[in-house]
Design goal:
Largest sheet: 10 strands, antiparallel
Structural class: mainly beta
Number of helices: 1
Distance between the termini: 60 Å
Oligomer: single chain
Length: 233
């Protein structure tokens, strides 16, 4: 084999996808117990270690809003029927005062995601944003958004200050029973408060997991652990 052929083969191998399926399509990286890694823009860092998943989102727009973008990094697993999903979210939610979108406040959000597709999904997140008018950090206690065919079906509670969230960690829970999904939160993982129950139009088979949202010019790093999905039998 000539040196030229060897060089050409090395280039081809270097450019090939790391993991290929039988159809030739690139397979998503899987994190055991969590699901498939989805990084639409390919610019986030998603690492798993010692039962924890850490997502680092650069200071660019990574949103989950059909009217803006649905390019936030996420890790999702398939689930059928009724289930209860829980996770602990830990991080420094400090978006600063510079937005990357031009139409929204600088925002950090992270939590559970119930996903059909990029136009129908539910977000439950610890969150914070800088309000230009009020000149202070505000949040939803917690944020709960339901998009159906691209249309926002949500009615979030009144905003409050960032002091609502105690410490760096918040526990979140989504419980599905038929066409109802109940969102709850806890500051300590022991005492739970139901935020709201949604009536939803979703197929029996969906995906559930975690996601991180950033519309700040600062990098946003968040850690997820104690992720669990209990499927009702």
């Amino acid at each position: 084999m000539t040196n030229s052929i060897r060089l050409l083969m090395c280039i081809v191998l270097a450019c090939a996808p790391a993991t290929m399926g039988e159809s030739g399509e690139k397979k998503a990286r899987e994190i055991k117990g969590w699901g498939a890694v989805v990084d639409p823009d390919g610019d986030c860092t998603i690492q798993a270690k010692s039962g924890k998943v850490t997502i680092a989102v650069p200071g660019k727009t990574h949103d989950l809003n059909p009217s803006i973008r649905a390019n936030s990094p996420r890790v999702l697993r398939q689930v059928d029927g009724d289930f209860t999903a829980t996770v602990r979210v830990t991080g420094d939610f400090k978006p600063g005062e510079q937005s990357t979108t031009g139409v929204t406040y600088p925002f950090n959000g992270a939590g559970l995601l119930l996903w059909k597709d990029n136009r129908t999904f539910i977000r439950l997140e610890r969150n914070i944003w800088w309000n230009f008018d009020a000149k202070q950090s505000l949040c939803y206690p917690p944020l709960l958004e339901y998009y159906l065919d691209g249309k926002d079906q949500s009615t979030n509670p009144p905003v409050t200050t960032d002091e609502f969230f105690k410490g760096r960690s918040t526990h979140l829970r989504l419980e599905r029973k038929g066409n109802e999904v109940t969102a709850s939160y806890s500051h300590d993982g022991k005492e739970w408060t139901a935020a709201k129950t949604l009536t939803v139009d979703l197929p029996t088979q969906v995906q559930v997991g975690v996601a991180a949202v950033n519309s700040s010019n600062r990098e946003f790093v968040v850690e997820f652990d104690q992720f669990k999905v209990d499927v009702s039998k």
